[in-house]
Design goal:
The chain is mainly alpha-helical. 43% of the residues lie in helices and 6% in strands. Strands 1-2 form a two-stranded parallel sheet. The model has no long low-confidence stretch (mean pLDDT 78).
Length: 63
């Protein structure tokens, strides 16, 4: 599963993040920006709940 941007408090994004390991799927995120819309992504990456993928080709290779 690829999560592009996630608000820290967005329920749908966080449910997706929780579903990935339950489905035995990696959760992939691009590098978090300083934009508030990427706070959830930054938290997932910092907590090692998501794998950092800096470019789309790498993301596709991991899926």
């Amino acid at each position: 599963m690829i999560l592009i941007e996630a608000l820290d408090h967005a329920e749908a994004s966080m449910r997706t993040a929780e579903a990935a390991p339950a489905l035995s799927r990696p959760l992939l995120c691009p590098p978090a920006t300083k934009d508030i819309r990427a706070d959830g992504s930054a938290r997932l990456l910092a907590g090692q709940r998501a794998v950092l993928v800096p470019d789309p080709a790498r993301a596709l290779a991991l899926l």
